């Protein structure tokens, strides 16, 4: 059975930078949880950042807080731990929080803390995708379901 790595905040865990969560109540998620496919992970917490913590945005290869603190090392450590978990468990699909400096898979904030989005990926999303993991965000669950069927057909065939 294919497992799915998912951002902990999407499962209602209070790990967001502001101490909140982004609970995603969706039939697909509930089904995958019942099937035992879901593996929750927060790369920012795994990288050693506290909750709550200052907001951060990716600027090129670095991640900075609004106060200018460089938190890149924590983001990179969390990404490495996410990749290690995916490799250890044979995970080929991830559902990560959109727009996050760790988890964004298509767009991230531009680093000015003005809520402007640019094309780009978060540190974890980029590392997982480079390692061959299919990375989706919470608005792409139908695509996740399609990819899951493809992977299971490949492993059965």
Automatic annotation (TrEMBL):
It comes from the Bacteria. InterPro entries: 2-thiour_desulf (IPR007553). This is Purine nucleoside phosphorylase. It comes from Shewanella decolorationis S12.
